[in-house]
Amino acid sequence: MAASNKSATKHVTKTSLFYLRDSVVYKTQKPYYLNIPVGDRPGAKQTNLDHEKRRHISITDIRGRESDYTVDGVGFELVIHKTLLGHDDFDDDSKVMSTYYPEMVQFVTSKLNAARAFVFDHTLRRRTPGIQDCGTSKWRQPLSAAHIDQTPDSAKARIYLHLKEEAEELLKKRYQIVNVWRPLHGPLKDRPLALCDYNSLDLSRDLVPTDLVFPHYRGESYNLLHNESHKWYFVDGQNVDEVWLFKCADSIQDNSVAKRVAAHTSFEYSETPVDSRPRESIEVRVLVFYDD
Predict the structure, then answer these.
(1) pLDDT at site 36
(2) What is the mean pLDDT of residues 242-259?
(3) How far apart are CA 80 and CA 245, in angstroms?
(4) CA-CA distance, 112 to 24, in Å (whole number)?
């Protein structure tokens, strides 16, 4: 875990975040996003998501207090992890899959004391100024709407999709999906990641299931409705060897620490230098299995 300095002065920044609009449309239409190009197909829409900008949102920097924020406590934590890959290596999918995937398996199983881990995908992001949509290309734009990567149903479906023959047995024991998020250069100042304390969510109203449609698969995530109670956090100047580890789903759905997952989004940081390098990042999503 990253070091903590309890005497550090708390640093809070103000920004705007995008939330799903609480629209009557979603009473009859499920929110969706097509992760495939729709081109000029008549009547085709990439998405029916309608996000609204909420201003003056406080986001607290955890720098100096890193150890206060843990996966079991709030749904996320900042962890030190070094990779063998250099910056340019991440543009080579074969190197990512042959070197980075095994690194992530070892990291996640060790950190979470798990029996097994399986990386099922990764996403590269590179901010291109002037483009708003996250896109469907290899290098996607930072996602600027508050969301949770998985729902309980989609987590179970992922196991069936990727580990077909073993799925029934694996589902008999505890499983999770986690995300490991790393900047590809640092210290990161441009569009850092903000994460929401699970304890500040109102599960009865804040989470809206959303279809994510791929060429081979239909997944499901949660978009967030705005709630004044949400507590957001980030780390200023995140370095390449500092990764966010956060939970997207857990098969244990009681009121224990197991249930805690992390909503997240990129945000426009008011203290970004004008000559700051546009953000580049990689996130890997990992199925995690336990013996209990």
Answers:
(1) 81
(2) 83
(3) 10
(4) 41
d(CA 29, CA 19): 17
Name the residue among 127, 157, 162 with its Cα closest to residue 281.
127
Alpha-carbon distance values, 151 to 154, 210, 223 (Å) = 5, 9, 10
Query: Span 103-127, mean pLDDT?
Result: 96
Helix (H) or strand (E) holding 105: helix 101-112
Per-residue pLDDT, averaged over 156-167, amounts to: 96
How much is the CA Rg of the chain, to the nearest whole Å?
Answer: 18
**Residue 281 in contact with residue 142, Cβ under 8 Å?**
yes
| Cα distance between residue 65 and residue 56, in whole Å | 23
Distance of CA 224 to the CA centre of its chain: 13
Return the ∠ at Cα 244 (arms to 72 and 18), rounded to 5°: 95
pTM of the complete model: 0.91
Q: How many CA atoms lie within 13 A of 283 on its CB side?
A: 24
Cβ neighbours for 145, distance < 8 A, ≥ 6 positions apart: 18, 19, 20, 49, 51, 223, 224, 265
Torsion of CA 30, 21, 188, 68, to 10 degrees: -90
Residues in the chain: 292
